[in-house]
Amino acid sequence: MILSIISLALVSSTFTFISATYYTKRKFKANSTSTTSLEKTMKELESNKYPAKAHNLKVKRNLLGKKEKLDVAHTALFISGGQVESIKYCDQTKPFRQNRYFFYLSGVNVPGASILFNFNTEKLTLFLPDIDYDDVMWSGMPLSAQDALEKFDVDEVLYAERINSSLNDLSHYTIYTTDVDNINDPHLSELLKPSDPNFFYALDEARLTKDWYEIELLREAARITDNCHLSVMSALPIEKNEGHMHAEFTYHAIRQGSKFQGYDPICCSGTNCGTLHYVKNDEPMDKRQSVLIDAGAEWENYTADVTRCFPLSGKFTKEHREIYEAVLDMQSVVMEKIAPGVHWDELHLLAHRVLIRQFLKLGIFKEEYSENEIFERKASLCFFPHGLGHLLGLDTHDVGGYPNYNDPDPLLKFLRLRRPLEKNMVVTNEPGIYFNPFLIKEYLEKHPERTEVVDREVMKKYLYVGGVRIEDDILVTDDGYENLTKITSDPDEIERIVSASLSKGRSHFHAIV
Ligand SMILES: [Mn+2]
């Protein structure tokens, strides 16, 4: 960013700045899925502020619900947001990723900012970092305090130099905070009450269900992600290595204004598809049949999380198609049950039962064993070891799911959402089937009662598929669900997209290398 002489002349002690580098302003128009509803979404987001005040009030309500004796007249919350961190022994900085709790309560993506919410007056104050005039030359014209007041849903904007006095004024208050990691002043730390489990509970329960604005952000992240997945599926002539899929996805995300991914994209082929969080993304794809890509673009810190699988040749092999359809069946059966009040544990176990029925049909499970018998022996665990899905929002695995990684039941141990669904939760529905040598050794061969039900000869035929996962982002509505993910998962349609791309040849695509 280059700063003009004229701009520098405007700098004065009353006109103060913060770096504007971290704002994402919508300047990109979608071309492949442009619709009037998209324009409506963008208009609504642009004409409304991120509802920070409502989020603070929600946290206050939740804390009151948890602590009936809470002295509202003397309670506040204060959170110091994320800071730019430098890389050790290097003058470069790590990519800035805002503290999610801070963003939820402020909608502010500026490094080094803090917020104070007074439960008594319900006043929300944003503290911007003190101005570093030296930095203006490097970072350009930042947002003024006045602009910040107009941009964000806060009652007052002050600078960090006022934090001390503002908190001192509340020295007779209980001031909750998540942590004091970014507080360098010991006196300030003493005024704060960090790590209170009830405060975290209040925050997490607030983030559990999304308001309309958050849903629109997630919808936008999903729409960008749809286009990215479509681009990966339809650029086979220039995708010869797993890394090329990664590049294609990221390229189209950035083209649409999404600079960050919610998580490292998982781009794998062949037997690598059996590794759940494969992030090496660097192997050649020739001589392989199957591909799995799990990636989600972010919009204003809210992320999508979508997985698609397709055949590299444009035509599923018999075994790949059979596994694909089994997973699709698991996902569809679960999908139709998604509604408020339904316990996620139940849907997860239902997905296991659908897998068992499918494997009985394919002959991977021996027909002399009943669905119940196989279920009781937990033989499906080896092929579907992870949870059916998780909450989605500011975090890929969003807060409020209360997983129990010590659950004695291995079928439920890795399930990240352990409660009934509620309206306005956003969850992923992501069943999968994997043929992973490690899992076969650990979850099958070490358990004779499970090994017994598997026809090893039949199973062997499927090993090369590696794995299939299909993942969509689902909004729980009044009486059912809405699928925010629109990229097709229909195997015939996927074959058509991949085949059409292959027929175009390399010269059709923009690829320098
Ligand atoms: Mn996921």
TrEMBL record:
<keyword id="KW-0479">Metal-binding</keyword>
<protein>
    <submittedName>
        <fullName>LAFE_0B07294g1_1</fullName>
    </submittedName>
</protein>
<dbReference type="InterPro" id="IPR036005">
    <property type="entry name" value="Creatinase/aminopeptidase-like"/>
</dbReference>
<dbReference type="GO" id="GO:0006508">
    <property type="term" value="P:proteolysis"/>
</dbReference>
<dbReference type="GO" id="GO:0030145">
    <property type="term" value="F:manganese ion binding"/>
</dbReference>
<dbReference type="InterPro" id="IPR000994">
    <property type="entry name" value="Pept_M24"/>
</dbReference>
<dbReference type="GO" id="GO:0070006">
    <property type="term" value="F:metalloaminopeptidase activity"/>
</dbReference>
<dbReference type="Pfam" id="PF00557">
    <property type="entry name" value="Peptidase_M24"/>
</dbReference>
<keyword id="KW-0378">Hydrolase</keyword>
<feature type="domain" description="Aminopeptidase P N-terminal">
    <location>
        <begin position="50"/>
        <end position="185"/>
    </location>
</feature>
<dbReference type="Pfam" id="PF05195">
    <property type="entry name" value="AMP_N"/>
</dbReference>
<dbReference type="InterPro" id="IPR052433">
    <property type="entry name" value="X-Pro_dipept-like"/>
</dbReference>
<dbReference type="InterPro" id="IPR029149">
    <property type="entry name" value="Creatin/AminoP/Spt16_N"/>
</dbReference>
<comment type="similarity">
    <text>Belongs to the peptidase M24B family.</text>
</comment>
<dbReference type="InterPro" id="IPR007865">
    <property type="entry name" value="Aminopep_P_N"/>
</dbReference>
<keyword id="KW-0464">Manganese</keyword>
